[in-house]
Structure formats: structure tokens, C-alpha cells
């Protein structure tokens, strides 16, 4: 049987009139899936060719799509009608609670991290880091990608990489930054509440990493700051924000 998630193949979204951007869920699409006895859980459409989990392979059925879940790295096969797009339902689904609140918060934080990684992918160029893009050893249709400030070996298709670059519109980014600087005192908090806001914030951080050194010695000398300690504090604060998850920003 062919893998419906491989090669960007589209699976018709049956029922419920869900509007998928591509006409149906494709490899890499971020989704919410309804798991029994759990809240709607964040994940992304995956390819069975990229996992050697025998149970996952045994569960393969025509018409189903494989979802890799954030938080616990588990998998599940779903009919497309059991999935909803991540961005469209973020505000509603991210506010869920229940008995699995702590593990759910960690899963949402990991999903938000992936949103940021995909946005930062737009500014990643092999001209600066030749080893950032490597052919996937399990399937030549995919690449293993290292995005600075994120975990290594992320699985992406060429179409995803191109799409990330196409979403970067310099004029739009500049207008967003100017608007935030002039009219929004709470711009960082607002950015954490919506997927487009998260993407834009990640884009600016990626741009800063691409253009500037992580340690600014001139600034350190002028203000008497230890650059190594400042960088470590920044990284620690970012990790703590990710652990708290977006629920805090939604309150």
C-alpha cells in the first residue's frame, strides 16, 4: 500500500466541511487530533517511511493519515475527518485543560516551538551553513535540517522549505515591526497568542541570528555586561517561557 502522507500526497478531508489550505491534509501539516480520553492533541502529518516503529506500520490503512504527536513522540492513524488545522483552531484548543494538563501544556509548547522553527527556516541558507540541509537516510524525498536555536535533524520536504521562504515577505515583516514599535506596548504578549504572531516573532529572532553575532562585545563594553552570562540568561529565559506554554499568554 502506498503511504498517503509521503511525497506530499493529499488525502481527501471527508465530512464536516473542514477547510484545508491544500484541499486536504499533507505531509508536514500541523493539526489537532481527537484522541480518546484526551483533549484535542497537537501533532503534524508524518510519513510512515520515516519511522521504523513496527506497530505504526501494522496500523497503516488506505485513506488514513499518520499523525506524529508533540509532547510524547507517539503516533496515530486517523481519518482526515478526525483532524482540524492547527492554526485555525489554536486559540480554542490550546486553552483546553483536564487531567492531562501538564503533559498537554508541554505538547502545546513543543508545537509552538515547531511553528517558530518553520518560520526561522525561511532565513536558513546552505551558503552560511553547508551542513544545515542533509538528505534523509530513510527516504530521499526528505531532508534533515538543523535550524539554529532549535533541535537538530528536523524532517522537512523540499516543498516545505520553499513554502517557508515564500512566506517571508520583507515589506510585510518591516510593516509589522514598525507597527509593533509605534502602537503596541504589549507586542511580545500579543505575538504569543496567535500563530501568525509567533511566526513573525521567530522570523525576527532568526534574522537577528543570521545578521548579528550572538555576543555583542561593543554593547558589553559600553554597559559593563558580561556577554557570556547575558547570552546564557537569555537562553534560560527562552527555555522557561517555552515550558510555561501558551496557556499563560491566553489567560
TrEMBL record:
Extent of the signal sequence: none
Superkingdom of the organism of origin: Eukaryota
Domain PWWP: 27-89
Pfam families noted in UniProt: PWWP
CDD domains (alphabetical): PWWP
PANTHER family: PWWP DOMAIN-CONTAINING PROTEIN, PWWP DOMAIN-CONTAINING PROTEIN 1-RELATED
Protein name: PWWP domain-containing protein
Naturally occurring in which organism (per UniProt): Zea mays
